Amino acid sequence: MEKFIITPKEEKNVTMTIRIDKALQEKYNALSARTNRSRNELIGMALQFALDHMEIKEKS
């Protein structure tokens, strides 16, 4: 008989609190309604995009 194996759950998500301008929140609310994605998901996507496309300029 095959065994039913349970492995520990990997926690990949964390909770983080940020403060943003109310106008920015309203834009994410509208985008969330328009795309049927959660505001949290959209912000996570935007943060990942920013990291992937970031350029840091060194002091001259």
Structure report:
- By secondary structure, the protein is an all-alpha fold.
- Helix content is 47%, strand content 0%.
- It has two helices and no strands.
- The chain has helices spanning 22-35, 39-52.
- The longest helix has 14 residues, at 22-35.
- The N and C termini lie far apart (68 Å).
- The model has no long low-confidence stretch (mean pLDDT 95).
**Total helical segments:** 2
Shape annotation: extended
Which parts are unreliable, with pLDDT below 50 for 5 consecutive residues or more? none
Order of helices and strands: HH
What is the strand and helix layout of this fold?
Layout: H1 22-35, H2 39-52
Descriptors:
extended, 2 helices, 47% helix, mainly alpha, 60 residues
Summarize the structure.
The chain has 2 helices and no strands.
